[in-house]
Amino acid sequence: MKASKKKKLEAAGWKVGSAADFLELSDAEEMLVNMKVALAKKVKAMRQEKKITQQQLAKLIGSSQSRVAKLETADRSVSMELLIRSLLSMGATRAQIGSIVGTRKTKKVAKAKKKKALVKG
Amino acid sequence: MKASKKKKLEAAGWKVGSAADFLELSDAEEMLVNMKVALAKKVKAMRQEKKITQQQLAKLIGSSQSRVAKLETADRSVSMELLIRSLLSMGATRAQIGSIVGTRKTKKVAKAKKKKALVKG
DNA sequence: CAACTGTATGTCATATCCGACATATGTCAA
DNA sequence: TTGACATATGTCGGATATGACATACAGTTG
Questions:
Q1: Which of A25, A106, B74, B121 has the smallest C-beta neighbourhood within 10 Å, fewest atoms?
Q2: pLDDT in tens, A31-71
Q3: Residue ranges per structural domain of chain A
Q4: CA–CA separation, B103 vs B52, rounded Å?
Q5: CB contact B56 to A (< 8 Å)
Q6: What is the pTM of this model?
Q7: Predicted confidence (pLDDT) per residue in A68-104, tens digit
Q8: Which member of B59, B62, B101 has the closest CB to residue A98?
Q9: Which CATH number does A29-103 carry?
Q10: Which nucleotide is nearest to B65 (CA to C1')?
Q11: In the CATH hierarchy, which fold is given to the domain comprising B36-103?
Q12: Helices (H), chain A
């Protein structure tokens, strides 16, 4: 978080910690979730492009249809690892995956959510 | 795997399956490992650039020195998730991480390892 | 309507990953 | 040498992710 913003928030009565504080963590957490959602969408897109069912993809990656469904909906029980493994198994290149990971989709709601996450001091 | 290469291998007496075969999986696995190693190196590089100890980084990400050590050596017990989370906690951008994920480091040993992984038919 | 296909959701036992701790190794200075 | 500090390695109980299964839901076809 920028120092100017932090000062403003503190002046408004918000409790803002240091380095490992709530906000920073939630920032990282949010980015992680966004990455997962982006990867999940790619899994679904690639599968549909290949015209195969979740069942078939499941077999391809040695898993089950239900887990593939969770993968594509970015369920909280799925790891980054499995998402990437799935993409690789469908033939995605590291460059493609890197592009997804590195491309931030601008979201308008971000700010509102962030404010909610703050703790009134 | 390219069709030409597959044909060659089969002619030489190697058993080569289809889509979900051993080779493809081990390819994905190898890429995954390579990604992890690249991310691990970045964790170490960023930490050293910030001139902080593993202990301090551990505190920053809510972990322990031993786990940070494993992180930086790409121990098999560390997940992609934790690697990325650590980078984000140190202030890495999605673009930076995406670049690491997407950049393949050419390795000469790859071919030899691949041949070893084949199953004589 | 029923029957079928594809996808989503909930649950569970087990496998994997986690932080934490002890301890080893390595380096440098007193 | 001893001590202090940074990093690596092994282990362990608890937390989380896993594949598998049942089942619900949504289309489509007959």
A1: A106
A2: 999 999 999 999 999 999 999 999 999 999 999 999 999 99
A3: 29-103
A4: 27
A5: no
A6: 0.76
A7: 999 999 999 999 999 999 999 999 999 999 999 999 9
A8: B101
A9: 1.10.260.40
A10: D7
A11: 434 Repressor (Amino-terminal Domain) (1.10.260)
A12: 3-11, 22-49, 54-61, 65-72, 80-89, 94-102, 110-117
